[in-house]
């Protein structure tokens, strides 16, 4: 995703920039003074509030709790639910790259989930590969899947893209249903896990899943703040303006789609290991819709929000078990209520400047 | 000394039956300030869109800096050194002021996705350099509001400044400004005039579409006049002001009233407040 045609590095100020500095108008605020002092207090307040929520300490704390969960409660039920939730978080942060960062409405995201699960399931059950070794192949398959599906579809905009991705999602599922090779409607069974490492099998899988998902959340958040992440947002905000700035929007959209595909594919491996058996109905449209719901509910483009959204979507039906058969009705009503009162999502993405390395204050002049 | 930077030859583009640009030929010299004027619907913006790749010209050629850019993708043309602003502001509304300006330097930021994921020293170096440079461009255009604010919350005049800063951050050889003075008050127009002069002093060619004749006459070294997609005049401001074809294009018929109006426009252009303010 690095531009080969980069005319010049940004490391030393160019002659052009130096010329600019020399010709800067006299009415520029003196160097070192803070710009927009009148907003400083409000900004400082907002920073404390949202900074706390999105701070690295809170994230580290949550990661620590996630890793410590088996010590807090290691009942089979809790571990099962927790693995489900983690896989769902992985899918949601992956789809967030496509929908949240880049603004591409993808209704067939379960396709990559299916590709990941089937590739790793086939390699491990038919050819006896260890599950961990299937991951690079799954990544390659997800990239190829992304190229094949994204190639024609990413030329389309908005609604058309949504319809075509929906179609591709179904094509993948129906293909798996009709090929003998993939086990047809019965799917694949007897998929091994990653190994027990002397632990209880489900706890070992939990830890492996937790580590992969924590790294995935971190990477997706950092990608969003880097050069490529900015390009995704530019494309989401205004494709033409992005083009006018020299950003090849088709390539940028492709990058988002493929990054999303890789996240989905790896989530598929974890799902296969967790379920030990997969079949086509596991990857129906409901999955794509639920993952999208997690992204929208949490706050598009906001990684903390999307993680919360994924937790709500995956855990709420379990927490509502007391409501017996009513629970999906209650679940649906709760979602509607949230959408009415928080249309921007539970934890919407903050518009703000990332903290600079070193002592410089946020948004201060260099 | 003066070298042709942009060379447009016989460029045409049609929408349905309307020839928006009809065999347009003109050139821009390196570092010059050129205005493109003409009545509404004369094809000025369409010509801009053809040059920058947003429209495909039906015929003709566009050469920039010695290479043919006819029908190339807008991103490719932008990367070759042409930056533009839009007639209606096209900023990234949800993003901060600084992020908007960073868009201009996107192709120069040396950082790949791995750097971003692992937060390598190269990531920090490139991010810090981009932030510093964004501040410099905002200083250059005189944007002193909160730069960490969402751009859509800024006053219109400030948004205009940011759009120019974003285009300048592309470090263009040529900057196309599409009606930059639209909606600006008198003080802001004076500042815009000063800004355009400072941009020209950087060695960047400025091509300006503008309806404010005072501003056009004051800043331009040369003016190209379009009417119905064709070039009807090309010359220094003084010659354009008294060109009968131009007066006719603006006023329709060459009658008594038109002459009076033309003289008024000419007088206004000469003694405009902007000129006085300087």
TrEMBL record, chain A:
Its main location: membrane. It holds the Pfam family BPD_transp_2. It is found in: Cell membrane. GO terms for molecular function: branched-chain amino acid transmembrane transporter activity. Keywords: Cell membrane, Membrane, Transmembrane, Transmembrane helix. InterPro entries: ABC_transp_permease, LivM-like. It is a multi-pass membrane protein. The chain crosses the membrane at residues 51-71, 77-97, 104-123, 129-148, 160-176, 204-224, 254-273, 285-316, 328-347. GO terms for cellular component: plasma membrane. This is Branched-chain amino acid ABC transporter permease. The lineage of its organism: Bacteria, Bacillati, Actinomycetota, Actinomycetes, Kitasatosporales.
From TrEMBL, chain B:
SMART domains: AAA. Keywords: ATP-binding, Nucleotide-binding, Transport. One of its GO terms (molecular function) is L-valine transmembrane transporter activity. InterPro entries: AAA+_ATPase, ABC_AA/LPS_Transport, ABC_transporter-like_ATP-bd, BCA_ABC_TP_C, P-loop_NTPase. It comes from the Bacteria. GO terms for cellular component: plasma membrane. Residues 6-253 form the ABC transporter domain. The keyword Nucleotide-binding applies. Gene3D superfamilies: P-loop containing nucleotide triphosphate hydrolases. The keyword ATP-binding applies. GO terms for biological process: D-alanine transmembrane transport; L-alanine transport; L-isoleucine import across plasma membrane; L-valine import across plasma membrane. It holds the Pfam family BCA_ABC_TP_C. This is ABC transporter ATP-binding protein. It comes from Streptomyces lasalocidi.
